[in-house]
Specification:
With 172 residues, this protein is mainly α. Helices cover 78% and strands 0% of the residues. It starts with 15 loop residues before the first helix and ends with a helix.
C-alpha cells in the first residue's frame, strides 16, 4: 500500500469523549466506504464479463458474416460494435483492478507507540482514519469514473455501429 499522508487536525478545545466519538464515526465512515468499494469492484467485474461476452459474440458474428459473403455491411457493423464492447470490457476490468484500499482496525504493533496516553492515541487514530478515508474515496472515485467510461463506451459502440450500418445501407 502507498504511504498515507497524515495531516494533523486542530484538537484545541476538543474533549476526550468528543475525540472518542469522532473516532467511532470515522471508523463507521471507513467501514461504509470499504463496503461501497467491494460493491463497485463487483459491479465492474460483472460489467466486464457481460461486455466481453457480448463483444466476443459480435466479433464471432462479424467473422461469420464476412466469411459467408452473406452481408459484408452487417459484418462491418458487428465488427465495430464488438470491438467497442471488448474495449469497454477492458476498461471495466481496469476499474476492478487491485488497488490500495484501507480497511478498518489497527495492528496492535502499529498503535502501541501512542497508547501510553489515551487522549493522544485517540487523536492519532482520528488523524490516521481521516487519511484512510481520503485515500479510499479517491480509489472509489477512480473505480466509478472508469466504470462510467466503460458504460458510455459500450453504448457509444452500439450507436456508432448503427450509424455505420445506416450509412452503408444508404450508400447502396
Amino acid at each position: 500500500m502507498s504511504d498515507l499522508v497524515i495531516e494533523p487536525l486542530d484538537w484545541a478545545g476538543v474533549s476526550e469523549p468528543t475525540v472518542q466519538e469522532i473516532v467511532r464515526l470515522g471508523e463507521l465512515q471507513l467501514s461504509d466506504l470499504f463496503q461501497a468499494a467491494l460493491a463497485a469492484d463487483q459491479r465492474a467485474v460483472n460489467q466486464a464479463g457481460i461486455l466481453a461476452g457480448f463483444g466476443a459474440a459480435l466479433l464471432a458474428a462479424a467473422g461469420t458474416l464476412w466469411l459467408s459473403d452473406t452481408s459484408r455491411i452487417m459484418a462491418v457493423s458487428a465488427l465495430i460494435a464488438g470491438g467497442g464492447m471488448v474495449a469497454s470490457a477492458f476498461i471495466s476490468g481496469l476499474a476492478a483492478r487491485p488497488s490500495d484500499y484501507y480497511a478498518n482496525g489497527y495492528e496492535p504493533k502499529r498503535i502501541m507507540p501512542s497508547a501510553r496516553d489515551n487522549a493522544w492515541m485517540l487523536k492519532c487514530v482520528a488523524e490516521d482514519l481521516q487519511a484512510r478515508i481520503r485515500a479510499n474515496r479517491k480509489s472509489l472515485d477512480d473505480t466509478a469514473r472508469l466504470t462510467t467510461i466503460a458504460t458510455n463506451g459500450a453504448f457509444l459502440a452500439i450507436v456508432v455501429a448503427g450509424l455505420a450500418l445506416a450509412l452503408m445501407l444508404t450508400a447502396l
